[in-house]
Amino acid sequence: MLFKLTTPIKTPNSDKEVTELELQEPTVELLEKLNYPYIIDNDGNLQFNAKKVYQWAKELSNLPPSTVKKISFHDMETFKNGLAVFFLASKEQAAEIWSRSVTGSLT
Predict the structure, then answer these.
(1) What local confidence, expressed as pLDDT, does residue 71 receive?
(2) Would you say 78 and 104 are in contact if contact means Cβ atoms under 8 Å apart?
(3) Is the dihedral of CA 94, 98, 101, 105 positive or negative?
């Protein structure tokens, strides 16, 4: 899936500007390695773990950690919302919600 950044980032040791990330679809193997990036509290709300979201971003984007750390807070929040749908919706619903999320129209 394609994730467009609202704030471009630069890769280390080059002046190459990254404006979008090509993300792999999460796998069970990756889930086993990283675990869920959130918990559901007693009220049914998602509580995200920022370090886990960062780990998922590194793994799904195949970017070096130093580059992922440069992703803007806004873009990481959008990524987080998009990531959640993989765990909470069907594949078709996830693709639709992800698409709305990465274009900034997730409500």
Answers:
(1) 94
(2) yes
(3) negative
